Amino acid sequence: MDLVNLLHCGYVQGWPERAPVEVYGPGPRRAVPGPLATGPRVVGPTEPTPGTTAFVRRLIEAFAADFHDRVFAAHRRDPFTLVNTHDVALPAAVGRGRGASPTVDPWVVSEDDAVRVTATLVEHGAMFPCLAYRFDTAHGSVVFSGDTVPSENLVVLSRGADVLVHEVIDARYAEWQFGPGPYDAAQQRAVATVMSKHTSTDEVGSVAQAAGVGTLVLTHLVPASVPTSRWKAAVRGFDGPVVVGEDLMELDVAQVRSTTQAGRRWRSEQPEQALMELLGRVPVGQPEVGAEAPEH
Fold this sequence. Notes:
The protein folds into two domains: 1-88, no CATH class; 106-296, 4-Layer Sandwich (Metallo-beta-lactamase, Chain A), CATH 3.60.15. Helix content is 27%, strand content 20%. The protein is built from nine helices and ten strands. The chain has a seven-stranded mixed beta sheet with strand order 4-5-6-7-8-9-10. A hairpin with a 4-residue loop joins strand 6 and strand 7 (141-144).
């Protein structure tokens, strides 16, 4: 099973070894955000904001020549039989075509005897819907934030989880990106755009603390040039273990659960004042259009 937080092509490329793979992800937004809707740069005007099902179909079609010339000539499987795609249905009260994610209760995406998968809405700039996922098993529970700013929905989804895998951006992103200031207007807009879509090292600890999770794992480290030692030292507001994620890293959730249970129980009983203060700093609405940095 593959669950997609948001539709970036770099996150979803690959050829499954065992087929079919069940792929779940955001559905179509049906509207281009803000002033871009009437601008000259609308891509794919007949389907400008495809959901997961259309996204996968387009990826396969993009490699049509390769499939016809090489894959089918080698009598390999039709690529459309390698994946089963599912646009995750949102709660009925949630509308489409908006950038800000409303407050929602977590809902079930998939469930079997081994794992229960629930989701919630998180926020990543104008992209909508963006999803975070929680996996509950007999051995423990893990939450993946995906790309997001600090999110009350995510805190609710993560309540009491053994592991929270959360994206993070260095609070000193401007220095890493452009060097010491002062910064010109274009650089300031670029930094503001990126920072308004992610959770900083000053904020991520408060999210984990408010959720009462056992262990915080940092992922999607922006920028990648920051030394590993800096990430853990920069986190504020969380008194549990912090792990800096690395490619191919494995964590034993059952072991994490047994070693962090007492601390998780204590954190889950604390007032949420820190969370309220944190959410008060979350930008409202979308950043100014113009000189935007690329999505991460």
